[in-house]
Amino acid sequence: MRILCALVLLSSTIASAQSPYISPEQREGWHTTDAEPAEPFRILGNIYFVGARGLASYLITTPEGHILHDTGTVEMHDVILENIATLGFHVQDIKFMLHSHAHVDHMQGHAAMKRATGAQVLALGGDAVAMESGEDNSALGDEGWEPVEVDRIVEDGDTLTLGGTTLRAVWTGGHTQGATMWVTTVEEEGQTYAVAFRGGEIPNAGVPLVDNPRHPTVVEDTERTLRVLKALDPPDLFLHNHVGEQPRALNPDIPVDSQCGSCFDAEGWVELVANSASRFRSMLTDAGR
Which domains does the chain have, with CATH numbers? Predict the structure, then answer.
């Protein structure tokens, strides 16, 4: 019933025109197979996977309450709630909600989750505008969502601290205007590991890069994003917001659950950033830049 109500509310806020750059099969997947239940598990330290088969959601636990990162599509709402309960945590203890970027497959469930938790929603700049309007204002301009109030607008470099855990916001506004990579450190077996939650790198393939009315500075913002990502020290663990069909081979020195299909080690992170830069150069060439 909760999913049905959320879908009814969503129907009035979806943008009138869906992007032609997302295939019907891909869009359908976000709402069907990608949103199917998946086993929750502890990844590293106080970070848990609570997402679905193809779309990630992460719970960061602390003695003073918890932080939820990404809510996926509306169809994932009950999946996330059940996964949190399965792990022995209480949804009412979620104090803050973060997101990777304002696209339908990563934060469409925010409004329903805010009602369920009473948590404060944080967002950066252009993504805060998108979340409160219910419309995708990125270069992609795809499907919308039920508007959700943003309680705190963050800026590049701002931090969130709860129960001894601190996350720092890194603006990566190439994929969406306010895409944010959150970085933190965790303890595991006496070792400290740097962990980064994906924000976004470059625009979706095929979207207009020149005179795009939704994101006029998309080229400049993406170039800045790639410079920032290249300059960062590679995190020990990079948590993607999409889940691969098979777990990736990771550095054996990182004690990560073998089920983690959304995990990259430092080498995988460097390759991802390099591949993103290469793809963006090709996109600029195609756009005549």
Answer: 2-10+35-286 (3.60.15.10)
